[in-house]
Structure formats: structure tokens, C-alpha cells
Amino acid sequence: MKALELKVPPLVLVVIIGGLMGAVAAISRDFLVPMAIRSWGALLFLVPGVLLVLASVWRFRRSDTTVNPMHPDNASALVTSGVYRLSRNPMYAGFLLCLCAWASYLGNLYAFLGPVIFVLYMNRFQIHPEERALQHLFGEEYNAYRRLVRRWF
User: Fold this and answer.
1) What is the full per-residue pLDDT of the chain (153 aa) written as tens digits?
2) Does the predicted model carry a pTM greater than 0.85?
3) How many CB atoms lie within 10 A of CB 106?
4) CA 120, 55, 77 angle in degrees (round to 5)?
């Protein structure tokens, strides 16, 4: 399974899973919830999700370190301020919220499997390898950060 580590960029994974969620919703039964309620529910997930992603990218840029999740070994700084005080992976948490928004909008129970699959995949094939690289690069500083801040929220 190590062959899958750091192979699919997280944003690409979001698009793939989102497409699969849409396909599943198209061939299965919807919730009996009016579209207006589904739309407002989706917005409740989407707005904070997009804000988290933007704040995460901004913090990385401000710290002058790589945003490329495929090469965590290229990190030049351990970012622990801003939204990174709340989560070690706020960008991924933002993507998760966007997938939850899409599932809410689709109004399909099976679509909610998409965010679950995203978390499972990200933990195993993206976050664990990133954590190994950051541990190697930043040692005890990263260990202290891990003890203080949760992975997701």
C-alpha cells in the first residue's frame, strides 16, 4: 500500500470523490428534503470550508514554504500559527467541509460516504507520509506541535 502514498494530489482527490458522490446520487434515492434547505445546509459547510482552505494557503505563502502536498520533504518552515493553531491539517479539513457541502446539496445518504472515504484515504496515504517527512525535517519541534494540536480538529 506504500505505493499509493503521496500519489494523488488532495485537490484531485476531492474532485474525484465529488464526481463519484454525484454519480452515486444520480442513481440512488434522494432525501425527502426540499432543495432550499439542502442549499442552505450546503452553504453552512461550504463557506467555512473555503475560508479554511484560503487561510491555510495564505499562511503557507506568508511563511514562505511549499504548498505542494506531494513533496512534504521540501518544507522550509513548520507552520504553527493562524489556522494551524487549531488543526495540523486545516487545508484538508476545509476540503472535507467542501465535500460535506456537496453531499448536503446532493441530498443523498450515500453521498455522505464520500467525506468518510476522503478522511480514510487522506489519513493513510497523505497525512501519515507528510507526518514522517515533517518529523524528519523538524524533529522535536514537530513532536511538540503534534502534542498540542489535533490532526483534523
Assistant:
1) 788 899 999 999 999 999 999 999 999 887 778 999 999 999 999 999 999 999 999 999 999 999 999 999 999 999 999 999 999 999 999 999 999 999 999 999 999 999 999 999 999 999 999 999 999 999 999 999 999 999 998
2) yes
3) 23
4) 80
Query: Is 3 in contact with 129 (CB distance < 8 Å)?
Result: no
Burial class (CB in 10 A: 0-12, 13-18, 19+), 17: buried
Question: Taking phi first (over 0 means left), then psi (-120 to 50 degrees means alpha), and beta for anything else, what does residue 79 get?
Answer: beta
Residues 132 and 153: their CA atoms lie apart, in Å, by: 20
Please report how many Cα atoms fall inside a 13 Å half-sphere around the Cα of residue 15, on the Cβ side: 5
Largest CA distance in the chain: 51
Residue 49 and residue 95 in contact, taking contact as beta carbons nearer than 8 Å: yes
Cα distances from 27 to residues 13, 79, 100, 143, in angstroms, run: 21, 43, 19, 46
Question: Residue holding cell 489556522?
Answer: 83
* Terminal Cα distance for the chain, rounded: 26
Question: What is the grid cell recorded at 96?
Answer: 472535507
